[in-house]
Amino acid sequence: MAKQNRNTGRMASHGNMESDSEPEGMDNALHKLFLAKAAQSNELREALESHLEETEEHISRLEEVFESLDESVKNKTCKAMQGLIAEGDEIVKEQKDSSALDAGIIAACQKVEHYEIATYGTLCAWAEQMGHGEALELLRQTEEEEVTADEKLTEVAETVANQRAQSE
Protein backbone atom coordinates (compact mmCIF):
# COMPACT_ATOMS: atom_id res chain seq x y z
CA MET A 1 0.00 0.00 0.00
CA ALA A 2 1.30 3.46 -0.86
CA LYS A 3 2.22 5.75 1.99
CA GLN A 4 -0.37 8.45 2.53
CA ASN A 5 0.92 12.00 2.61
CA ARG A 6 -0.96 13.96 5.28
CA ASN A 7 -1.61 16.93 3.01
CA THR A 8 -2.78 14.85 0.05
CA GLY A 9 -4.90 12.75 2.38
CA ARG A 10 -6.60 15.84 3.75
CA MET A 11 -7.34 17.16 0.27
CA ALA A 12 -8.65 13.80 -0.88
CA SER A 13 -10.81 13.23 2.15
CA HIS A 14 -12.63 16.54 2.11
CA GLY A 15 -10.94 19.44 0.39
CA ASN A 16 -11.82 18.55 -3.15
CA MET A 17 -14.94 16.41 -2.86
CA GLU A 18 -17.10 19.46 -3.06
CA SER A 19 -18.46 18.88 -6.56
CA ASP A 20 -21.39 16.80 -5.33
CA SER A 21 -21.20 16.86 -1.53
CA GLU A 22 -24.05 18.32 0.48
CA PRO A 23 -25.29 21.02 0.22
CA GLU A 24 -23.41 21.92 -2.96
CA GLY A 25 -24.52 18.71 -4.66
CA MET A 26 -28.15 19.44 -3.92
CA ASP A 27 -27.72 22.95 -5.32
CA ASN A 28 -26.32 21.34 -8.46
CA ALA A 29 -29.17 18.81 -8.50
CA LEU A 30 -31.79 21.54 -8.11
CA HIS A 31 -30.09 23.50 -10.87
CA LYS A 32 -30.30 20.47 -13.20
CA LEU A 33 -34.00 20.23 -12.40
CA PHE A 34 -34.42 23.95 -13.22
CA LEU A 35 -32.58 23.47 -16.52
CA ALA A 36 -34.61 20.37 -17.35
CA LYS A 37 -37.82 22.33 -16.90
CA ALA A 38 -36.46 25.14 -19.09
CA ALA A 39 -35.38 22.76 -21.89
CA GLN A 40 -37.38 22.95 -25.10
CA SER A 41 -36.70 19.45 -26.44
CA ASN A 42 -37.86 16.23 -24.86
CA GLU A 43 -34.44 14.70 -25.59
CA LEU A 44 -32.62 17.29 -23.48
CA ARG A 45 -35.25 17.24 -20.75
CA GLU A 46 -34.97 13.44 -20.49
CA ALA A 47 -31.14 13.55 -20.46
CA LEU A 48 -31.12 16.11 -17.64
CA GLU A 49 -33.76 14.31 -15.60
CA SER A 50 -31.88 11.04 -15.97
CA HIS A 51 -28.63 12.66 -14.85
CA LEU A 52 -30.46 14.30 -11.95
CA GLU A 53 -31.24 10.82 -10.62
CA GLU A 54 -27.58 9.90 -11.01
CA THR A 55 -26.51 13.06 -9.18
CA GLU A 56 -28.58 12.00 -6.18
CA GLU A 57 -26.74 8.65 -6.29
CA HIS A 58 -23.40 10.49 -6.55
CA ILE A 59 -24.14 12.27 -3.29
CA SER A 60 -24.89 8.96 -1.60
CA ARG A 61 -21.77 7.40 -3.09
CA LEU A 62 -19.60 10.27 -1.82
CA GLU A 63 -20.97 9.65 1.65
CA GLU A 64 -19.78 6.04 1.26
CA VAL A 65 -16.35 7.31 0.21
CA PHE A 66 -16.11 9.41 3.36
CA GLU A 67 -17.18 6.42 5.46
CA SER A 68 -14.55 4.21 3.83
CA LEU A 69 -11.93 6.80 4.78
CA ASP A 70 -13.28 7.13 8.35
CA GLU A 71 -13.94 10.81 7.66
CA SER A 72 -17.01 12.90 8.25
CA VAL A 73 -18.58 14.87 5.41
CA LYS A 74 -17.35 18.44 5.51
CA ASN A 75 -19.65 20.80 3.69
CA LYS A 76 -17.66 23.25 1.64
CA THR A 77 -18.93 25.83 -0.78
CA CYS A 78 -17.39 25.49 -4.21
CA LYS A 79 -17.06 28.91 -5.80
CA ALA A 80 -16.30 27.40 -9.20
CA MET A 81 -19.53 25.38 -9.17
CA GLN A 82 -21.49 28.41 -7.97
CA GLY A 83 -20.10 30.36 -10.91
CA LEU A 84 -21.00 27.64 -13.38
CA ILE A 85 -24.53 27.44 -12.00
CA ALA A 86 -24.93 31.24 -12.17
CA GLU A 87 -23.69 31.19 -15.76
CA GLY A 88 -26.28 28.54 -16.63
CA ASP A 89 -29.00 30.67 -15.09
CA GLU A 90 -27.85 33.64 -17.17
CA ILE A 91 -27.98 31.61 -20.37
CA VAL A 92 -31.54 30.52 -19.64
CA LYS A 93 -32.60 34.14 -19.04
CA GLU A 94 -30.81 35.43 -22.14
CA GLN A 95 -32.02 32.66 -24.47
CA LYS A 96 -35.47 32.17 -22.92
CA ASP A 97 -37.47 32.68 -26.10
CA SER A 98 -34.75 31.65 -28.52
CA SER A 99 -34.34 28.50 -30.57
CA ALA A 100 -30.78 28.45 -29.16
CA LEU A 101 -32.00 27.84 -25.59
CA ASP A 102 -31.29 24.11 -25.59
CA ALA A 103 -27.84 24.62 -27.14
CA GLY A 104 -27.08 27.15 -24.39
CA ILE A 105 -28.34 24.82 -21.67
CA ILE A 106 -26.16 22.03 -23.06
CA ALA A 107 -23.11 24.31 -23.12
CA ALA A 108 -23.72 25.29 -19.50
CA CYS A 109 -24.30 21.69 -18.41
CA GLN A 110 -21.20 20.46 -20.18
CA LYS A 111 -19.09 23.00 -18.34
CA VAL A 112 -20.41 21.53 -15.09
CA GLU A 113 -19.82 17.97 -16.33
CA HIS A 114 -16.25 18.77 -17.35
CA TYR A 115 -15.56 20.31 -13.95
CA GLU A 116 -16.99 17.22 -12.25
CA ILE A 117 -15.03 14.86 -14.52
CA ALA A 118 -11.81 16.72 -13.68
CA THR A 119 -12.60 16.61 -9.95
CA TYR A 120 -13.42 12.91 -9.92
CA GLY A 121 -10.37 12.14 -12.07
CA THR A 122 -8.15 13.88 -9.54
CA LEU A 123 -9.83 12.12 -6.63
CA CYS A 124 -9.43 8.76 -8.37
CA ALA A 125 -5.72 9.40 -8.86
CA TRP A 126 -5.30 10.33 -5.20
CA ALA A 127 -7.33 7.36 -3.97
CA GLU A 128 -5.24 5.03 -6.12
CA GLN A 129 -1.97 6.61 -4.97
CA MET A 130 -2.98 6.24 -1.33
CA GLY A 131 -4.25 2.68 -1.71
CA HIS A 132 -7.90 3.45 -0.95
CA GLY A 133 -9.40 0.73 -3.15
CA GLU A 134 -13.00 1.03 -1.96
CA ALA A 135 -13.00 4.81 -2.39
CA LEU A 136 -11.35 4.44 -5.80
CA GLU A 137 -14.03 2.04 -7.02
CA LEU A 138 -16.84 4.35 -5.89
CA LEU A 139 -15.20 7.46 -7.34
CA ARG A 140 -14.47 5.75 -10.68
CA GLN A 141 -18.09 4.70 -10.98
CA THR A 142 -19.19 8.30 -10.53
CA GLU A 143 -16.53 9.60 -12.92
CA GLU A 144 -17.73 7.15 -15.60
CA GLU A 145 -21.34 8.29 -15.12
CA GLU A 146 -20.24 11.92 -15.52
CA VAL A 147 -18.45 11.04 -18.77
CA THR A 148 -21.57 9.21 -20.02
CA ALA A 149 -23.76 12.21 -19.14
CA ASP A 150 -21.40 14.50 -21.05
CA GLU A 151 -21.51 12.18 -24.07
CA LYS A 152 -25.32 12.14 -23.95
CA LEU A 153 -25.37 15.94 -23.90
CA THR A 154 -23.08 16.00 -26.94
CA GLU A 155 -25.42 13.60 -28.73
CA VAL A 156 -28.45 15.81 -28.00
CA ALA A 157 -26.50 18.89 -29.12
CA GLU A 158 -25.46 17.29 -32.39
CA THR A 159 -28.81 15.69 -33.26
CA VAL A 160 -31.31 18.26 -31.97
CA ALA A 161 -30.19 21.43 -30.21
CA ASN A 162 -27.52 22.79 -32.54
CA GLN A 163 -29.71 22.26 -35.60
CA ARG A 164 -32.59 24.04 -33.87
CA ALA A 165 -30.30 26.92 -32.87
CA GLN A 166 -29.19 27.39 -36.49
CA SER A 167 -32.78 27.61 -37.71
CA GLU A 168 -33.29 31.06 -36.19
User: What is the beta-strand fraction?
Assistant: under 5%
Shape: elongated
For the largest beta-sheet, the strand count, sense and barrel status come to: none
For the termini, the CA-CA separation is 58 Å
Helix content: over 70%
Q: Quickly name the level 1 CATH class.
A: Mainly Alpha
Number of structural domains: 1
Q: Which quaternary structure do these chains form?
A: single chain
What is the residue-averaged pLDDT? 84
Helix-strand pattern, N to C?
HHHHHH
> What name does the CATH topology carry?
Ferritin
**Coarse structural class:** mainly alpha
Indicate the CATH architecture. Up-down Bundle
Number of strands: 0
Give a short synopsis of this structure.
With 168 residues, the chain is mainly α. It is built from six helices and no strands.
What do these coordinates show?
The chain is mainly alpha-helical. The chain contains six helices and no strands. Helix 2 runs parallel beside helix 4, helix 3 packs antiparallel against helix 6 and helix 4 packs antiparallel against helix 5. The longest helix is centred in the last third of the chain and has 34 residues. About 4% of the residues have low confidence.
